[in-house]
Amino acid sequence: MSRRTEFIPYKPKTILNKHKRADHWFWTRYTAYPYKGCQHGCQFCYCREQKFSPFDDPNDFAYTIHVKENAPQLLRKAIARAKTDLIFMGDYQPAEKKFRLSRQMLAVCLERNFPVFILERSPLILRDLDLLTEINTKAVAATAFSIISTPDSVHYERIRQMEHLAPPPEKRFKAMEQLALAGIQTGACMMPLLPELCDTDENLESIIKWTADHGGSFVLASGLTLSDQQRAYFFNVLAERFPDILPAYEKYYPAGKSYGAADGSWRRTALKIRELCEKHGIKDRMPRPIIPGDKRAKNKGIVEIFANKVYRMELERAPKNKIWVYRKAAWAIEDMEQDISLFYRMMGQKGLEKIPEIGENLAKEVEGLLTEVV
Ligand code: SF4
Questions:
Q1: In the beta sheet, which residues pair with residue 36?
Q2: Which ligand 1 atom lies nearest to the CA of residue 46?
């Protein structure tokens, strides 16, 4: 018998989480989510881990949804005081049909011209295409779909069993196409790439090809994380339904460690993704959205170049100290309050060397990039 969903409305004190600086994957500076718990109930979901989850029993995660009923009002107050930057938001699980909080939060962002990024497993996002299109003309609306297999994948049926409450990937790709046709940046996030199931070359190519064919401009990928109660929960799923791959997971995810996928295998996968993205004409990094009127647009463009360089150097096994030079430089430029091109016009190349973490060589590199970025 299927279990009923319980909704628990409550009024949190805050909704907007502010991070020190934008991350180098989705370029988001803020996060704001309207629900805790997810009716899609993907069995591999890290949100069941204790640090994210209000649930003692991980089985409740998909059936007890905590609804932040004052989310739009809190967001309105919070962004009135916040610097304009990308907010990671939206949640289009079935609860959204009833409570419409993601829609109301988008309306708040539209009022204040705030840019948004949404990562989804549901085509319900298309219900709000009107708001997304309007936000995209005034600020930025960027999107991505979590997709870890296609109907062409050898292990499609098995993977679907692990996310059977979420709409099928075919519907997500159709939604991707609609968003791309509306001029909204979109792509696929292969998150998580489940070992033994999703990381085969044919599955990677299939997702990348489907993404390119449906107007997506990028594919991001990351491995599976398994900690504390989520590790135990997922191992039970494997033991009951896929015992043949359980030994491999026990090897990749030994007890007491959060991340199990070996560096070597991840590097191989990431390089393959890069090669396949090039073949199909899309990127293996999400392009950083340009926010209209952003006086720090040049800073952000240079940060994007440096962050992508860090990623490439990691894949190419560059020396760690060289990688850190670019990572710290990216952080320092992100942290600048001023427009870096104005700073350069006033102070010249020597002035660039006054930016923390920027020495003479990097200052020359930044100088060259100033004309390259938008
Ligand atoms: S849709 Fe996302 S948040 Fe919801 S259960 Fe699946 S992985 Fe977790």
A1: 66
A2: 8
